[in-house]
Amino acid sequence: MRRILLFFLTGIFMFSKSYGQLSPSDQHILDSLLQNDEMLKMINNYDKNPSYFRVNVGVGNNLYSRQDKSIESLQNSQRFVFSPSVGYYHKSGFGISFAGFLLNDNNKTDFYQYTLTPSYSYKKGKVADVLVSYTHYFEKSIYNNYTSPIQNEFYGNLLFKKPWLKPGISVGYSTGKFDQSVHIDTTVSILNRLVHIIYSDTVSTKISSYSVAGSVEHSFLFYNLFTIKDGIIITPQLSLISGINKYVMTHTSSLDHYNSYTKKALTRIRHFQSQGNNHSYRLQSLGFDLDVNYSIGKFYFEPDLYLNYYLPDTNDNRFTQIFNFNIGITF
C-alpha cells in the first residue's frame, strides 16, 4: 500500500509533465505533500498496526477478573479499589500488562494483589477478531478476604465483525486456592439443653472454574464532538454465561462442626452455599455490560458498568454490580 501511494504521487507529477509544466499552486501542493512529516508518516505506516504503550488508572469495585464474566459473578464484596496499570502492545498482536490493586483494610491502605497478563490479539481477519490471554494473580496473603480466589486465569474471545449486531463467544478456565480462618462461638439447643460451642476452623479451598459465554454487541461511534481530535464509542453487550465451578475443601474441625457451623460462615464467594456440592455444567447467569470510551488525542476516559443476574437457586442476592472508571494515555 505504501508503494501504491508513492506511485500515485509520482504519477501526478509525471502526468503533469506530459501535458505541460506544473502551475505554481500545483507545485506548491506537491512539494508540501512530499515534505510534510505527517504525510510521510502516514504513507510509511498505512499498512501497519503501530505498537503502543498504555498507562491507566482505574477506580471501582472490581476485585476479581477483568475479562471472565463467570468469575466476576462470584464476587461477594463491594470494597472500593484503586488499580493503576501499565501495558505494552506490539504491532504483531502480542501484549503484556501489569496492574496493582490498592485498597483500605482495617485503616491500612496497601497493595494487596498484583496481576501480570500476557496476551495475543489478531484483528486483521475479515471474519472475526481473536483475543487470547493468561492472567496470574500475585497475592500478599491467601487469607485476605479481598484478594481474588483465582491465581491462574486462561481466557479466549472470538468476536465476529460483519453483522450490525456482532455475535461473540468466549471461553474461560481458572484455577486457584484460598484459605479462611473461622472462629465459631455460639449457643445452641440440643435435646432441650443449651450447649455452648466454641472452636476455630481453618478451611482451605481449591477452586476450578470453566465457562462458556455467548454474547451480542454493537458499538456506536461519534466523532468530532468538541474538537477534531475527539470521539466516543458506546458499546452495550448482552451475554449468556454457562459453566461449572468445582470446590475441594479441607478443614481442621470435625465434619459435623464444618457442616453445621463453619460452612455457613464462609461468605467470601457469592452463591457458594448453593453450588458447593453441585458439580454439574449448567447455565449460570445473564450479563449486561455497558462500556463508554471517550478519547481526545492520546488521552481516554472509560467508565464501565457490568450487571449480572444469577440463574440457579441461591440464598444470596442474584444481582451483582461491578463498575470501573478508567483514565489513561496511549502513546
3D architecture notes:
This protein has 331 residues and is an alpha+beta fold. The protein has two domains: 2-40; 50-330, Porin (Beta Barrel). It is built from six helices and 13 strands. The protein has helices at 2-18, 24-35, 37-44, 69-72, 255-262, 272-275, and strands spanning 52-60, 81-89, 94-105, 108-122, 128-139, 152-160, 166-190, 193-217, 220-223, 230-251, 282-296, 299-310, 319-330. Strands 1-2-3-4-5-6-7-8-10-11-12-13 form a twelve-stranded antiparallel beta barrel. A hairpin with a 5-residue loop joins strand 6 and strand 7. The radius of gyration is 27 Å and the shape is elongated. The model is unreliable at 1-10, 12-20 and 36-47 (pLDDT under 50).
Shape: elongated
Lateral strand order in the biggest sheet: 1-2-3-4-5-6-7-8-10-11-12-13
CATH architecture of the largest domain: Beta Barrel
Strand percent estimate: over 45%
Low-pLDDT ranges: 1-10, 12-20, 36-47
Q: What's the CATH topology label of the largest domain?
A: Porin
Roughly how many Å apart are the termini?
Answer: 24 Å
Radius of gyration: 27 Å
Order of helices and strands: HHHEHEEEEEEEEEHHEEE
Query: Tally the helices: what do you get?
Result: 6
The helix content, as a percent range, equals 10-25%
Mean pLDDT: 82
Total domain count = 2
Strand element count: 13
Structural class: alpha+beta
